[in-house]
Amino acid sequence: MKPFDEAKAKAGAKVVTRDGRPARIVCFDLEGRQPIGAAIEREDFDGVVSEVLHSFGSDGRYYTGTTQDKDSSLDIFMAPDKKYSAVWMCRDGRVMCLPFPYDSKDDWKSICLMRCAQRVSDSGVRIMKQSRFWKLQELKEIALRYRHRNQFKNGDFNAYECARRNGLLDAVCAHMTPGTSDHLIKWTLEKLTTEARKYTRRTDFCRGSNRAYACAYRRKLLDVVCAHMTPSPHKRRAKWSLEALMDEARKYDRRSDFWREATNLYQSARRRGLLDAVCAHMGGQHEQVR
Predict the structure, then answer these.
(1) Residue partners of 112: CB distance under 8 A and separation at least 6
(2) What confidence category does residue 33 fall into, taking pLDDT thresholds of 50, 70 and 90?
(3) pTM for the full model?
């Protein structure tokens, strides 16, 4: 057996690793000239490679990993540098090489698993760190519950991720209509007015359509698009007169009701030291009001 670093044999050829252990070559570079991956043999697995030992990338490092799924037909995998290919060694001894164009190395295990399992998507696709398989038909049935991809993602994140990582998202979401995001809308005066007509108060407009409200505010169109809205009966003034405070306070029998229904007037009377005067008609002990 030749040392692994000097070997130029076909996949499956026996070599010796750096630490002297027998191994088999499982992958080459994209041109098929130089071996970049090897795996050790285990006698308890009938001579089939079951653990990746070396997988060298252009940066000189190697990446390894093994599947923990005993029911899968795929036993080991590794993800070399993105310039090479993702390689799988099946339990029957076959070697499969798949493109690996992803830049992120953080989730290379799940990406590699999904890409390889895509070939057998009808029999089930496994999600890493999950305890179930997703069949293609299951993904389609789940996606039919939603009208937009964003709803699908928020409602069934695991199914969405499985479809996305397998490149099946377009297939399972074919029935969906493309949604229009607020931040992509070009807000004209007509659109702002139409959106504002859905509400009767500026507060509701701000909460319900925040982006439209902010756009109207920045362009100084708020008074125009909100012209149909009725002003609040307790709109804050520069300064409430004593007569106005007393007229408003007479509508209530308790200070808590006065504070709850006319907060601006209540706070104005409190700050000016007129609260006892305007609430003199209210009987009972003074309530503790914020």
Answers:
(1) 65, 77, 78, 79, 86, 88, 98, 100
(2) low
(3) 0.27
